[in-house]
Amino acid sequence: MLALKNVDVFYGNIHALKRASLHVDAGEIVALIGANGAGKTTLLSAISGLARPGAGSIAFEGVEISRVSPDRIVRLGVSQAPERRLVFGPMAVEDNLLLGAYHRYGSAKKREIAADMDVMFDMFPVLRERRRQPAGTLSGGEQQMLAIGRALMARPKLLLLDEPGMGLAPAICKEIFRHIGALRKENGLTVLLVEQNARSALAVADRGYVLETGRIMLQGPSEELLANRDVQRAYLGRDKDQAA
Ligand code: ATP
Fold it and tell me: How far apart are CA 104 and CA 85, in angstroms?
């Protein structure tokens, strides 16, 4: 479904992504793990068209998208729930959800969009309770649910999730990851997931990639990465301490 080949991204003279290659097959959940500043968000931004690669190719369902505008990429079937959620605080929960479907306003019937919103409310019942409340008044976990719901309102084939567990209490984080697993199982959604919490990410993912200072250093099935000594030392140690 998605294939990146030798992608370079620069911010001025900062070389943030260095010949990065990865692929995601339809129906997979793939985790991208790495430390602060490794280039994880940059990689997602390159896919969604927000960062322009200096070199390399990005193909989505066989179409080269590395020079395509972000709004067209959404129409092709890729949507992103960004890091720190970035919900529109003063706007009501339901208006945030509606914005996720903005590119469908012209073509989809209002009823179809309203039905999709109901699906989101069934998935995240707390959002239904708070539908008229300003999004900025939601808790962190609720805002994360809203950010995922808003991305799903675009009816994506590929969902890009940037640190969905960030800043959330462990129980809420677990709940979010449970939803991510269910989205694949029940909706056949394909997910590329960026996380610093490597243990949670690899627990839900089929495969993973490890990014270090802009380079993909390691890749493999999640069980292999979880058992890998270097991954354990660099990315799982803290989680282990927390679990103890
Ligand atoms: P984190 O986990 O902290 O979000 P990350 O792995 O997502 O980090 P990126 O945000 O992709 O990392 O950043 C990769 C590198 O590019 C970092 O050195 C960062 O400082 C730099 N960078 C990111 N965005 C910009 C920008 N808009 N302008 C300049 N440098 C940037």
Answer: 22
Q: What strands, in cross-sheet order, belong to the sheet with 78-81? A: 78-81, 158-162, 190-195, 29-33, 207-212, 215-221
pLDDT at 184: 87
Distance between CA 227 and CA 178 in Å, rounded?
22
- pLDDT tens-digit readout, 73-109: 999 999 998 888 889 999 999 999 999 998 888 776 7
The predicted model scores a pTM of: 0.90
The domain limits of the chain are 2-85+156-243
Query: Is 41 close to ligand 1, i.e. is its CB under 6 Å away?
Result: yes
> In testing the pocket of ligand 1, which one of 7, 9, 11, 18 has its CB within 8 Å of the most ligand atoms?
11
The CATH homologous superfamily for domain 2-85+156-243 is P-loop containing nucleotide triphosphate hydrolases (3.40.50.300)
Low-confidence ranges of the chain (pLDDT < 70): 108, 238-244
